[in-house]
Write a structure and sequence with these properties.
Order of helices and strands: HHEEEHHEHEHEEHEEHEEEEEEEEEE
Largest sheet: 9 strands, mixed
Number of helices: 8
Shape: globular
Strand content: 25-35%
Length: 435
Amino acid sequence: MSRYKHLFAAITTAALLVTATATAGVLSGGLDGTAVAGTSGTLATTAGCGRAPTLTSGTRSISSGGQNRTYILRIPDNYDRNHPYRLIFAFHWLNGSASNVASAGYYGLLPLSSNSTIFIAPQGIDAGWANPNGRDLTLFDDIQRQVENDLCVETSQRFALGWSYGGAMSYAVACARPTVVRAVTVLSGANLSGCNGGTQPVAYFGIHGTHDSVLNISQGRTLRDTFVRNNGCTAQSPREPGQGSLTHITTLYSGCRAGYPVQWAAFDGDHTPSPVDGSGTPNDSRTWTSGEIWRFFSQFQPTTPPTSAPPTSAPPTSAPPTSAPPTTAPPTGAPGACTATYRAVNTWPGGFQGEVTVANNGPTTLTGWTVGLTLASGQAISSVWNGTNTGTTGNVTVKNAPYNGTLGANASTTFGFTATGNGATPPSGITCTSP
């Protein structure tokens, strides 16, 4: 995470400068609308479907707006030219680069994608996304056109995300290309790249630190509320964690137009794309953000926007449970030892989220715990928080994190995970042991 630290001061200064220049430039128009394609009607695929591709993974050059621009392309292994793929644009932060985004697995989504997704990391001019006169939106259009003319993309499966300045650019894409992108995720963003349009619905996921010292959380709330209005959601003030809690709270808005959810995750932390529950130190491999972003994106299947009522299940959250642990599965462990109980938090096509409550029902303090569980065939853990796992399939163990291993009498804690596979079958053979 050291690559993020030197950016804070630069972002703080640039945010003030860019807000004025970007807003003045972008709102004046100058956008090329030829790449805009609707998602209404039957499933639609791109011109590249069925063609032998000429593009390959790596850094690509493209002429856009009279300038030579670049982007990094990542094509799935064993690419099938007759299979339509999901497409994700991942925008870098101020003074970051396309290479930084690619090396970090496109904000951690690449390892979760199981070769289902084409990834694109564009490179901004001056390592940012000022977007004067729609310059960077034109780049988005041009890259999309080049890729889709050569590769097979499902047109209802285009997404964008980014952190900080990259989040600002993702917001600009949502505002200006609502019929192109199905959903966006904005991590610690603000209105730095403009919002040309901004009146049409787009599925939206905002993530922001409650004491962000670079781009105040109020700026992230403003971006979120644009799509709360556009998507017809019921206005509310979502719960946010208190300072020192080292947790995050995810809220799924109610009342949104079917197929256009708005989700908001506030975390107790500063300006980072990789917060970790229970720790003040960001970590790319331990953050919960990648799992929640992937769940948000992957809920949208390759179809036209749904017309049925949106799901009512609770969004993923690692906040402490507000109800008593479920009692459908009998607790395990010897009297006075730890017990472990599983509950399903959420499911979506191809994946699910689970939570395990670890409790000390004895009269003495426990120092450390280990939970064992067996995943059903076809299930594989993709991320874990509030614990450290050994193994991802079959027999899996999860040990306490450094901050939640000590449990007083009658105390409990939880750890959560996301996994691929069918979540209808819960883990079996759940055990809990303590030294």
